[in-house]
């Protein structure tokens, strides 16, 4: 299976509904004809009983609206095809290198796999790419290749292989075991080990990070497999703490029970350290407290204070700083060991909460500079989860809508209606007025919603007519109207300020850029010419992009600097014909944002709401289709905002 076909499968599996060949082509950077060819080839590989000619049973269904995946069939097809894929052949070569004490003869490997020596040589080039950051190297002597690295470095490489498999599909025990080459272990053991580990950690007084626990289970499995093949870790000269001793005992018993391997002191101390720095946080009970490094705490206090001031967010609280400092302390430990923690929610956090993610990037940037550590995007996502948790209460309060109930009086009918609405709608809608007359002042009602049991003279978008005794259908209609009103409220300010932020000079279509830096420089040029930004701002935008990609969705990137040093807030728009490469993916629209300190309150409005509008595929495609020039782009953007 080709890399493009794998990317196509991933896109289809993530897409909840139909998607056109043109949209898929833009996301892949190919033509619609190539997309149709890939789909025909994938459907042709379907097993007997699901012929490609029958679009209702093929893994990829076609129709007037485009293409849609049969998720189970497509995932099974990828699994079946993957066994003979280039990636699996590459992983097989890595596993050979791991086990061969005297190196691997590439000619013999080529003969055994029935491929050319040139193919194996090309695989070796990819192996060298995999080794980056693991502490391993490959030495060549003629046709023989030797892997050089200590035991921890080798385990780091096995972990990287397994994470590649996790990124290409679901993280099941069999897929993990096959990708990491853990042949001595049973796939069925992974799930029970993980569940029992979480239970015992909770019983000992720890909060368990479920997202990271799979990563620790993987490392325990790797340790068990390596030990069973005669590759244990040597003991450390450091005395383990009482916490590490307890956790080592838990891990040792579970590894013996589920994987059938007795781990030595060196392995157990290493794994206990992983548990402490990746999976658990103290709940404050005796024996679970973790001393906080003063330098880390100072760095977090400065970073949080700067982010709170720069982005006008309410996060500078003692309890938040304490929790985040403990997390950063573990993060620093992982970073210095090059043992980063994966976060499966990174993409969804970026696309759904761009403002929260931006605050996390700011904190990570400050901490990284102060403590001299590299903080990767998945680790930034964990910081974003801390920030989002702190802001959730205020976000809910801001989202509350006001409502007027219109219910002409008849015994206690209006009281029953209000009671049912309060019970069904919760804190998201606050009833601020109740009208019991048959001729209320409709024009004087200034609430977000009007919920009425009688027909209004002129219904509008905020009005919901209800039955006297409210039904489930009424509740659903109220929720739908409320959702639309919240969106309108969020976008009203953006709608009013669009013309101030955009200008015809800062609109490029088609945008032709070879990479992110090229696109940033092209879109910065008109703002430089107008004196809105300077070269320092451009350099800052490029540096921000290196910290974490500003491709917040699969179609949109919003590059910007971490500092708000523009003379005034402005946007420069670039639209690609098709798509351009951005990081590991491809995008169609680049909105370079320049923010000024005097208008910092505009950051949340522009940043979050613009990402929301342009991340909706139908809205974006409409804008791309009709916005062929600046006037058309602005008209369509306004029309989309207005609904």
UniProtKB/TrEMBL annotation:
Residue ranges occupied by any PRD domain in the UniProt entry: 291-397
Protein name per its UniProtKB record: BglG family transcriptional antiterminator
Gene3D superfamilies linked to this entry: Mannitol-specific EII, Chain A, PRD domain, Winged helix-like DNA-binding domain superfamily/Winged helix DNA-binding domain
Pfam families: HTH_11 (PF08279), PRD (PF00874), PTS_EIIA_2 (PF00359)
Keyword Repeat: yes
GO biological process terms, semicolon-separated: regulation of DNA-templated transcription
PROSITE patterns: PRD_2 (PS51372), PTS_EIIA_TYPE_2 (PS51094)
Residue stretches making up the PTS EIIA type-2 domain: 500-643
Keyword terms of this UniProt record: Repeat
Species of the source: Nesterenkonia aurantiaca
Superkingdom of this protein's organism: Bacteria
